[in-house]
TrEMBL record, chains A, B:
<feature type="domain" description="dTDP-4-dehydro-6-deoxy-alpha-D-glucopyranose 2,3-dehydratase">
    <location>
        <begin position="231"/>
        <end position="433"/>
    </location>
</feature>
<protein>
    <submittedName>
        <fullName>NDP-hexose 2,3-dehydratase</fullName>
    </submittedName>
</protein>
<dbReference type="GO" id="GO:0016829">
    <property type="term" value="F:lyase activity"/>
</dbReference>
<feature type="domain" description="dTDP-4-dehydro-6-deoxy-alpha-D-glucopyranose 2,3-dehydratase">
    <location>
        <begin position="7"/>
        <end position="208"/>
    </location>
</feature>
<dbReference type="InterPro" id="IPR038153">
    <property type="entry name" value="EvaA-like_sf"/>
</dbReference>
<dbReference type="Pfam" id="PF03559">
    <property type="entry name" value="Hexose_dehydrat"/>
</dbReference>
<dbReference type="InterPro" id="IPR005212">
    <property type="entry name" value="EvaA-like"/>
</dbReference>
Length: 458, 458
């Protein structure tokens, strides 16, 4: 435990020095254990496990491009992202891990207690056992605080899901090297630091109940003060799922159009979106000390933004019903803006994502959060997004388009509990929003009423 | 409107006489507009619309048979099942339709106001417009009371869903022939009559809020008095979705093993499960007056049963996490028992469905509902299930198996609201359970406390 966050930063620096990592880019054709299948051109691991890079053909009436093909990561197995919590002196603490992921910009970020694919924990890769896994796999000693299947990046993964778990224990927990207890208030501070709390941590933390009552005594009145009832929001989502179509078909990677594979990488012909690259890793402290893998490297920084508004004491975010190539069920509740602006450069305003320019042009006085965060470093290479919260003025319309709806923060939390409703970008930004509200740094539009601040207790 | 239900029954008899229907069995090879595709043997409509009979290969570790192939109905489009409600003298009434479906045992049953596939209402079949459809398609004049995407029979349909809608209006509604207003209390009485309120009505009625507060002021305290919190139940469901696997692959109908196609029908080689048969229909009052279609004819009556228990004033049902061939997401919350007992005849007790024999052997004093109900007559031929509610004694265990959990009726209602959680059999039985509680006929185990009766107001 750390009295002060400067102690934590010193600890993190020590962990960084304690372990050595060497990450080297290599051509895809030189990846140890990985091959392009002869018939399909799919990039697969020799064991048939882990994940593969395949092709996807998409048809939808809910994106500017009605149909396209693209490379996509196929990883059908459900992994575990789990955070162990325990109260010390009445304050809930999370057991976090300083973890190297090869795609991390800064090598080490704060991961959940457990971040394991099924291949990890079923021993397919023949590494060491995953520490603390037994706390998350039934039968377990702790109390389940949060447990939901959640989607991951729909542009890059085909219907991938992870199980997000928060388990509370009261007994002794030995703290291994690379692990530390951080209080929820400390984590809130750290969520406002760029590229520190990793995506897996953020999506799990989005499920941390913000009011003590929530966990065990049932749903609270999520609709209190909200612009729309939960029933109206569910109907809006049903409407979107019915109105739009998303048809797709897995195709061989070598049937993907407008993308070219060289020995070195797979890249889009007009230099858009992402590349698939290969890396070799040597690490002194991972379950497996040396491995090779393909990674998806986005070419440009993204923007992930919620437009926000206070309605009396109730904070709302403008949620988008968004369709991605890999979305499991046509649409998910996504941030107001999720895109890489560079992919839309030079397009006339009418063909640029709605509210992108609004968010980018917002005056500093209305921006209550602006922090760069990384997406998952286990699959994505240096994937960085600018996370923004932008308060809108009172005269901003309530109804803006059938694809958007104002949802109170409390309502968004309740949809997170049910799983499969809220996109990973929205959950990740929600964790930062919780941090922003809890730390109570002066808000742009007159400050956040203290009464409205959620209590950060599990 | 009917002062008395005898007036309703007289009206229904008149509607039966007012229209003529002729339903004839014909060989599959003689079905007008339908063909077996040469390459696959799939039974498809010449337009490429409606639905098709195809093959499915299933692998799962959550059924006695680990893997099998079977014919299955593929109908990707989302239909609408909608009930219009309106208050008369302060009592909510539903606009119901006396509708012929070719598979109905008794030709006419009570359908929702609108029961339309997308092919119906988009005019693919070139029939007359669907009456009242405009009340359900946005923009609509009424208030959305309930709106969720819900699954249908997972043994017979591949991930089929319909949109279940309840819309409340205050303005004038002309009542067409074959339609009538029934009050919610009257519908509750009729739900206890066998084969009268059809499956589509039952699944929609399961979404009718049982407390006035539910519809607009947000989630109520569903967990009050419940044996498990909503969070625990969600975790139980997540656990089941993670623990079990369901992999499947569409295969050509002619690659299905252990089933044989004759010109007349498709049947299982050992006389189990169902047959696929063909019928010709002539009706005097349908959008299309004459058509042919294949239907799925189950060979045996099924049993759909909830074990139930009172815990103080809170009524619970024993929910099963069940996997069917066509289940969208590994498991759904299903009744304690869902099966056709004849398919398990002669098997030793350990291989028969859990609680089937318990439910069948229950003394009359513990059976609070025992009514035969039909499944959808538009796709299924004479599909009849025995719906049972069986009260268990107080010493019945709370934990019976990882696949089962006690859920309060109020909690089950809340999962119905979110869609995609509760199976069609469970929703259908829930509607009957609501009816059973609301009509307050003497319960087996000491009567239903009046205070526990849900108010049947939308």
């Amino acid at each position: 435990m750390f009295e002060d966050l400067s102690d934590f930063h010193a600890w993190l620096a020590r962990r960084r020095r304690a372990n050595t990592y060497r990450i080297t880019r290599v051509p895809l054709t030189d990846l140890d254990g990985w091959d392009f299948e002869e018939e399909t051109g799919n990039l697969v691991h020799r064991s048939g496990q882990f994940y593969s890079i395949e092709g996807l053909e998409v048809h939808t009436d809910h994106r500017a491009a009605g149909s396209w093909t693209q490379p996509i990561i196929v990883q059908p197995e459900i992994g575990i992202l789990g955070i162990l919590i325990k109260e010390f002196d009445g304050v809930p603490h999370c057991l976090m891990q300083a973890k190297m992921e090869p795609g991390n910009i800064n090598t080490l970020q704060l991961s959940p207690t457990v971040q394991a694919t099924r291949s990890n924990y079923s021993g397919v890769h023949r590494g060491q056992p995953v520490p603390y896994l037994e706390e998350f796999v039934a039968p377990r000693r702790g109390r389940v605080v949060f447990d939901a299947l959640q989607s991951e990046q729909g542009s890059w993964f085909l219907t991938k899901r992870n199980r997000n778990l928060i388990i509370e224990v009261t007994g002794d927990v030995p703290v291994l090297d690379d692990f530390c207890w951080l209080s929820v208030p400390q984590l809130h501070e750290l969520l406002l630091v760029e590229n520190l709390v990793n995506m897996d941590s953020r999506t799990v933390l989005a499920g941390l109940p913000t009011r003590p009552a929530d966990a065990d005594t049932g749903p609270i009145a999520h609709d209190a003060g909200a612009l729309h009832s939960t029933g109206q929001i569910l109907s809006w989502l049903t409407e979107a799922k019915t109105r739009y179509s998303l048809r797709r078909r897995r195709i061989p990677l070598n049937a993907v159009r407008e993308w070219t594979r060289s020995p070195d990488e797979i890249a889009h012909d007009r230099g858009r979106y992402f590349r698939v690259i290969g890396i070799d890793v040597e690490a002194s402290n991972r379950e497996v000390r040396r491995w090779s893998q393909p990674m998806l490297a986005p070419l440009y920084e993204g923007v992930v933004a919620f437009l926000c508004r206070w309605t009396g004491p109730t904070y709302h975010v403008l949620v988008q019903a968004r369709t991605e190539a890999g979305t499991a069920d046509v649409v998910e509740m996504s941030p107001t803006v999720t895109c890489a602006p560079a992919n839309y450069e030079g397009l006339p305003p009418g063909r640029r994502p709605l509210f992108l320019d609004y968010a980018l042009a917002a005056p500093a006085s209305r921006i209550t959060l602006d922090v760069r965060q990384s997406e998952e470093g286990g699959r994505f290479w240096h994937a960085e997004n600018r996370y923004l919260l932008v308060d809108v003025p009172d005269d901003f319309p309530i109804h803006v388009s059938d694809d958007f709806i104002w949802v109170s923060v409390s309502q968004l939390e309740s949809f997170v509990r049910y799983g499969n409703h809220v996109s990973v970008e929205a959950r990740s930004l929600l964790a930062c929003l919780h941090a922003r509200l809890a730390t109570g740094a002066p808000a742009a539009a007159g400050g956040i009423p203290a009464a409205a601040r959620p209590q950060a207790a599990p």
